[in-house]
Amino acid sequence: MIEKIExxxxxxxxxxxxxxxxxxxxxxxxxxxxxxxxxxxxxxxLASVSQPFTYGHFVCMMxxxxxxxxxxxxxxxxxxxxxxxxxxxxxxxxxxxxxxKGTEDRVNNPYLxxxxxxxxxxxxxxxxxxxxxxxxxxxxxxxxxxxxxxxHCAICGNSNGHFVFSIKEGGILCENCSHxxxxxxxxxxxxxxxxRLFYHFDLSRLGSINVKDKTKNELELCINAYYDEYSGLYLxxxxxxxxxxxLKDT
Length: 250
Prior knowledge:
single chain, about 250 residues, alpha+beta, CATH 2.40.50.140, 2 domains, 5-stranded mixed beta barrel, about 35% helix
C-alpha cells in the first residue's frame, strides 16, 4: 500500500553501492525503516530527503512488516542551521538516538513526534541545547517506563521543605527522610524545581530559559545518574557529545 507520511529522518545509513536505509519517526505511524533506492547518488531525487533530521512528507510503499520503500519525498524543513553546527548536530543526534531506543517499530505516538519536532526546532531557533536535551531526557522517562517522584517525598509524601534527590528511592526525599539514603544528591532546590518543571510542562510553551552553569551541572548529574541506574542504555551519541563538551570547555 502506498501512503503519504509526515515524518522526520532520525537515522540514515548506506546500503549497497547506491542506496540508503533510513529510519523515520512519523506523526501517525511511529518509527519505521525504509529503503531509499539510489539515494547515495548526488543527482537522486531522494538524496536530500534521506538526510538525517530532514522533516517532510514521504510517499512510501508500506508492507505489513519489514522495510518500507521510499517512492518520493517533499521537504518541509531541513534544519540547516543544526546540520551546519557540529555541536548542535551532536545534541540532536543524541536526542534522536534516545527516541529511537525508547520506541518500538510502527507504534503510533503523535505526542512523541511533536515533542521531538518542537525540541529540534527550538534548538535551531537558538534556545539552549543543553537545557533542551535535559527536558527531552526527562520527558522520555515515562516512555521507558520510569516515573520519578518529583512532586513530593518518595517515602512519606511530604511536599514542603528542603529536599535531596535520591537515585535509590527514585525521586526526592524530604529532610525527615533523607537519612534513608546516605548517597542522595545534595543539589540546589532550583535544580529539583527545574526537574519537576521539565517533567510536567508543555514544551510548546517554552519561553526564555537562562540556567546558571552550576545548575546545569547538577541537572546533568541527577539525570545521568537516574538513567545509569534504571535504563541500562548505552548510547554512542552520548559518549561523543560528552567528548565534544570537554573540548568546548578547554
